[in-house]
UniProtKB/TrEMBL annotation:
The keyword Disulfide bond is annotated on this UniProt entry: no
Descriptive protein name: Uracil-DNA glycosylase
UniProt cross-references to CDD domains, sorted A to Z: UDG-F4_TTUDGA_SPO1dp_like
Origin organism lineage: Bacteria, Pseudomonadati, Pseudomonadota, Alphaproteobacteria, Sphingomonadales
Keywords for the protein's UniProt record, in alphabetical order: 4Fe-4S, DNA damage, DNA repair, Glycosidase, Hydrolase, Iron, Iron-sulfur, Metal-binding
SMART domains: UDG, UreE_C
Keyword Hydrolase in annotation: yes
GO MF annotations in UniProt: uracil DNA N-glycosylase activity
Domain Uracil-DNA glycosylase-like: 86-237
EC number: 3.2.2.27
Pfam families per UniProt: UDG (PF03167)
Length: 245
């Protein structure tokens, strides 16, 4: 009776280590507790040394030059595998639409929002009297990451570039389709930002522009959750109110 007297502790320990490895714990940290939320300690300076800080990148202040830079070797996605798509449509349009990244099919077609999501997008545009030729379509991330998600450490830079891009256009309104575009311009996910017309002041170099933003759902989300189309229609109505088609 009682506990198994033949318990194999070596096998149990190996099993536990395998479980931790499968869970992603593959690095020994320390035996003592550590406050992971504490700010990092300031760097220790050695007397007589000078710390050289690289100057920030100066972004082009015209739309054509910025689009060329965005597709060039200095862009954050330049070393990624896959075809980049900077923007499409009419850059002088009063309506700009910002999405997160190209779809998987887009690299083949060379067009943002291809496939089923693109067909739904076209119907949404038609419902407000627009076509792809009468809007300016921009992606926060010009090349689709291999995993379909942008690394957190790159988000701040991509958001900065998206704001700069929008500021260089002549758009009066911007539709933010999905969480990444909403975070880029409004600092919050689409669900929290929906339902309001958000006034924004964006800067690109010495240029300062006022624009209004509407957060809504990405077409791929609407394909997965058709019940949200009614709410998306409300967003589109708010978007075009007061704009000439």
């Amino acid at each position: 009776m009682g506990a198994d007297q033949n318990y194999d502790w070596k096998q149990a320990a190996a099993s536990a280590l395998d479980w931790w490895q499968d869970a992603g714990v593959d690095t020994t940290i320390d035996e003592l507790p550590r406050n992971w939320l504490a700010p990092p300690a300031p760097p220790v300076s050695t007397p007589g040394t000078v710390k050289i800080v690289a100057p920030p990148t100066v972004l082009p202040d015209t739309l054509a030059e910025f689009a060329a830079w965005r597709a060039g070797a200095d862009a954050p996605e330049a070393t990624w595998h896959g075809k980049g798509i900077v923007a499409q449509g009419d850059p002088t349009s009063d309506l700009l639409i910002l999405i997160d990244m190209p779809e998987r099919e887009d690299a083949e077609s060379g067009q943002l929002l291809s496939g089923a999501a693109g067909r739904l997008f076209d119907r949404m545009l038609a419902a407000i009297g627009r076509t792809r030729e009468t809007i300016y379509l921009v992606a926060v991330c010009t090349t689709r990451p291999a995993a379909g998600r942008v690394a957190p450490e790159m988000e701040a830079r991509l958001h900065e570039l998206a704001q700069h891009h929008v500021a260089l256009t002549g758009a009066k309104r911007v539709l933010l389709m999905g969480n990444a575009p909403s975070r880029a311009l409004l600092g919050a996910d689409a669900m929290r930002s929906r339902g309001s017309l958000h006034p924004l002041n964006l800067k690109a170099g010495t240029v300062s522009v006022d624009i209004e933003a509407v957060a809504s759902f990405h077409p791929r989300f609407l394909l997965e959750k058709p019940a949200a189309k009614a709410e998306a229609w409300k967003d589109l109505q708010m978007l075009i109110e007061g704009l000439e088609s």
